[in-house]
Amino acid sequence: MNGVRVGKRVIGADAPVTIGWENLPKVEGGPVKRMFFTYFQPAVLFALIAFWMYAPDSIAKASTAIGIGVGFKIFLLGLEWVNPRHSSWRLTWKELVTDLFYVGISYTLVKYAGKHIGSDAIAEAVRQLGDWEKLTWFTGMPLLVQAFAISFMFDFGQYWMHRGMHNWYPLWLTHSVHHYITQLNINKGAVGNPVELFLIGLGIGGFFDFLPRAALLAGSIGLAVGTYQHINVRFNTPRWWRFLFNTTEHHSLHHSQDYEATRSNYSGTYIIIDRMFGTCVDGEAELLGMEGGRRMSIREQMTYPFTEGYKSTKAFIQRRLQPVAVPAE
Amino acid sequence: MNLPYIERIWRVRGSLALDPPQSPATAFGKLDHLFQAAGTTYEIDGDTLTFNKKDPLSQDKMASFNRGTLRVADEGASSTLLYDLNSNTLLFCFALPFFFSGIAWLLEESRTPAFVFAGFFSFLYVVGRILEPWLIRSEFRKSLLGNTMSGRERPVA
């Protein structure tokens, strides 16, 4: 395979990828279907923004946000069924059970750990440290500006955390497990080692009590854009959307079996951050995973960072202690 | 160990009449594509095929079954496929409601989501216990009888 030159890099030399929007398939079907799958994403985004800006305080609560998130995901599961992007990514019963197991772990054990030793604890400490009176200039700004600022800053942090995971071995150990998924489905964002989910979650939870309305609005922007990262639906995503926002096409390249392709599209919501730092590649991939698409069992997903970390550390120490190989007699 | 009732949690057994009758070699030949999958090993001993699947791919049609046996009982005028399949995934899904109930019991703050997931997995188990045997049976039927449907089964155009 020759691959395609994108900037200074060659993408698709190890595994097939499609580069360039003009080379991607379009939604097939009648005018109603095509219109639905073109405007669905922006319509939901604007509806959610309108809801969180104008809903009365009695219903604009975190519990409503959770309810909307769950309902939205169930609806998207239906869309996967109706208009899949690749039939080779079809959700099976076993795949659903596995994915939901990880979602369940995120909502219980990982959240509990976050509350007591992670993000919420850090947020509380930060809140007590700072003099928040100084932030009135921020809270005085229009709600949408605050929300955009929060979601952009958060995604900026996520971009560097994620890029760090792909470049620093100890972090990669925890993140690599997520890269063993071989197809994208709506819940695949939760599939990975719980240690990684904990790291990714750092900084999310705790700030919900602080600037509630703006944070909920910021969260819903993340929901209405970031959720599509791991979805098996073919959309005719509008040009302006895919220029600004991450899409399932971008993220499938990031999960490709091609090594160079995985080193692109790190952001969760704003792909424009990748454009700023030269890591954006526009295109898509169908063949996903690591080691040629080897399937990893749940048991291995749980232990892999530790067993691999142990093996690498042991090899490193052995190299240090015995720098010169002694020939056998 | 013989656990006839408890085993039904993770074991799927069934039979499929082969009409017209097929020899074990013919039947296993038609089913061969199901076993030509990553992580699958199998061996045929006379009328019995024994298989093992280690970490099957998501789209493997038998991904839910990690081991099992298929036997073709050839009685001359008639023959039957008898299968006995083991599903660790069904067992895992059966255990999950207990696991999440345990979390609900241990971590008071996580009680609501833990019970919600315990409920999800109870429902999913029932769905899987019905759906997966049905799917594998229809896969066997399609492979074995697909091209040789008898007049009675052939849809009237």
From TrEMBL, chain A:
Cellular compartments per GO CC: membrane
Family annotation (InterPro entries): Fatty_acid_hydroxylase, Sterol_Desaturase_Related
Membrane-crossing residue ranges in chain numbering: 36-55, 62-82, 135-156
Keyword tRNA processing: no
Record key words, sorted: Membrane, Transmembrane, Transmembrane helix
Main location: membrane
GO molecular function ontology, one term from the record: iron ion binding
Annotated compartments: Membrane
Fatty acid hydroxylase domain mapped to chain residues: 149-279
Source superkingdom: Bacteria
Biological processes per GO annotation: lipid biosynthetic process
UniProt protein name: Sterol desaturase
Lineage: Bacteria, Pseudomonadati, Pseudomonadota, Alphaproteobacteria, Sphingomonadales
